[in-house]
Amino acid sequence: MTEIQQKGHPKGLWVLFGTEMWERFNFYGMRTILTLFIVNALMMSKEQSSIIYGGFLGLCYLTPMLGGFISDRFLGNRNCIMLGGLLMAAGQMLLFFSASIFGSNLELARTLLYVALGVIILGNGFFKPNISSMVSSLYPPAERNKLDTAFTNFYMGINMGAFLGQLICPIVGDVVKDGVRDIHAFKWGYLAASLAMLIGVTTFYFLKNKYVRTRRAGQLEDCQKIIQPKIMPKVKLKLLSFLTQL
Q1: Structure pTM?
Q2: Between the chain's N and C termini, which has fewer beta carbons within 10 Å?
Q3: What are 209-225's pLDDT values in tens digits?
Q4: Which helix (H) or strand (E) holds 194?
Q5: Among 35, 36, 61, which residue's Cα sits nearest to residue 50?
Q6: Are the C-beta atoms of 186 and 110 separated by less than 8 Å?
Q7: What is the mean pLDDT of the chain?
Q8: Which of 194, 191, 200 is nearest to 128 (CA)?
Q9: 24 close to 158: Cβ distance less than 8 angstroms
């Protein structure tokens, strides 16, 4: 049967746009104040801060391979997006607690830092490859010519979220008065990042069934038989989709 090509983009694209925008707000906003928090509040050296920051980013780029594999074999895209978003929000809340107690219990605050970063890394692995791959799944074969503009719009959400996160989180979390940094303000930046991720997850949860509609099962199976005959190529495609956003 010949498919009728619809005008414009599906509403699900804008649901994914908003979800990804808030996730990027969360991720980039946290990164903006992370090293300042480690050095000024947790009293670690700049060398230690660099190692922690570099290791954190490196693992964030590695774990999407695991997230893509688990999605394809066990949980599916939607569940992985929900799980990843909630893990990242939880990680930001752990950073909030770390930034709240470092004055009274420095060792516990440092421990919470490592746990929080680990949770965020894991959440990122579930979230990033799966939301990107869902963009292409919104379009049936007859509308594949729309994918270029679809991903252009999707990446606008990424850029908007990154810009807002790097603007707002330092405003509330890196407060300098009369040349003196308020080290107790870092927690508000992490709280803002956590709330942003919760907004994204909530938006996706309530709108995904109504608007984020993938192509029909028969169409999906036909496409997989042609271009994705095995499980690992699907994981590689998701990883490639993630890497194009870096």
Answers
A1: 0.84
A2: N
A3: 888 877 644 444 444 44
A4: helix 186-211
A5: 35
A6: no
A7: 86
A8: 200
A9: yes
CA-based nearest residue to 245, from 122, 156, 136, 149: 156
**What's the CATH number where 120 sits?**
1.20.1250.20
72 domain residue, yes or no: yes
Please state the domain count of the chain.
1
* Position 6 in a domain: no
Residue 1 lies in a domain: no
Query: How far apart, in whole angstroms, are the C-alpha atoms of residue 213 and residue 108?
Result: 44
Per-residue pLDDT of the chain (246 residues; tens, 9 = 90+): 444 456 678 889 999 999 999 999 999 999 999 999 999 999 999 999 999 999 999 999 999 999 999 999 999 999 999 999 999 999 999 999 999 999 999 999 999 999 999 999 999 999 998 998 888 888 888 788 888 898 999 999 999 999 999 999 999 999 998 889 999 999 999 999 999 999 999 999 999 888 887 764 444 444 444 444 444 455 555 555 555 555
Closest CA to 235 of 47, 77, 79, 81: 77
Strand ranges in the chain using DSSP code E only, listed in sequence order: 175-177, 180-182
Helices 46-62, 11-40: inter-axial angle, 10-degree rounding: 160
Q: Answer whether residue 82 is part of any domain.
A: yes
Q: What are the backbone dihedrals phi and psi of residue 241, each rounded to the nearest 5 degrees, phi first?
A: -60, -40
Nearest to 29 by CA among 208, 167, 147, 210: 167
Task: Please name which of 197, 195, 182, 188 lies closest in space to residue 169, comparing C-alpha atoms.
Answer: 188
